[in-house]
Amino acid sequence: MFNQELPSSAYIHVPFCQHRCGYCDFTLVAQKDHLIDDYLAAMEQQLSGVGEDVELKTLFLGGGTPTHLSINQLQRLFNAIFSHFQLATDYEFSIEANPLNLTEEKIDFLKQAGVNRVSLGVQSFDSNILTFLERDHQPQQVFEIVQRLQSRIENTSLDLIFAVPGQNLENWKTTLNHAIQLNIPHVSTYGLTIEKGTSFWSRQKAGIFDLPEEELAGEMYEFSLKFLSSAGLKHYEISNFARPGYECRHNEVYWTGYPYFGFGPGAASYLNGKREQNHRSVITWLRRIAAGESPISDQEELSPEDRAREAIIFGLRRRIGINVEKFAERYGYDLYDLSQSAIKKHVEAGFLEETKTHVRLTQAGCLLADTVVIDFL
Asked: Which GO molecular function terms does the record list (predicted)?
């Protein structure tokens, strides 16, 4: 049965960027560096509620662009974090980075601070695609930066985007091949989605561009599965591939339903079945903390059955799927009692498969995962 568990993972949101890319709907502010000192003071205040010497197995700094901060600003943030947390012996300390932020000095600083995993927002190795996505780097710069980074922090991941207007299958193959040539141990691939409120949403509605056909997007995704697997990167989650031992342990915490702390604007915490999310507005988050008010904008107490159903949704994202026996032991519900009709429907459709121990998505199911999991709610 599900028991109370103390988090051993923490997410820190750093909401600053030089520029908001047209497809991005994350919690961030661009060209607002005058707010960084206020943000750091607020983080010190929010972290003060944790206590001291809480041990973390995983720590993840996301954004925004955490490496947009200067070395001195990062040092202040790290001081605040490690005034309350300590890293376990076998820890994973990840940070998201923009390639052009990673100077020699900053890479050395991150290494000395204990960062042992870097996730780079590369997105493409094609100049035209990078221009469309409003990225500020060029392919050759990525080669140089990755090689410099990996000489200090070997566990480097690349984020890549496919199904971009103007992109074809050959172009996508070239981008994946460049990633493999860099000997990257982890790759995340995401189909471009247009979120309401972004500048891309307005441009698409105005007919300025159209996304590639779904059939082409599917071909790109299927090629990723075959190509990256043949290069030794195992497909371990719908969008993620890694060499053995290089899976993102922090993200596995989310996918396996374990608790975690979240700090910063828009960040979520999950503890004992209760989810809390900080306000997504950076200004509102800053104002509330400065006034001594709660920064939480949304909270939800999940019932035992809701926890179990949510575990199905996240568990199906993992390529290993859901261990039926362990699911029952942890959540107190039989998977088939909760979802027999949904499982039957999608097994017959070829989107799910059953093994002796697991229920999991098929390759075809991965292409339609969002549609499949709706039936498990």
From this structure: 4 iron, 4 sulfur cluster binding; coproporphyrinogen oxidase activity; metal ion binding
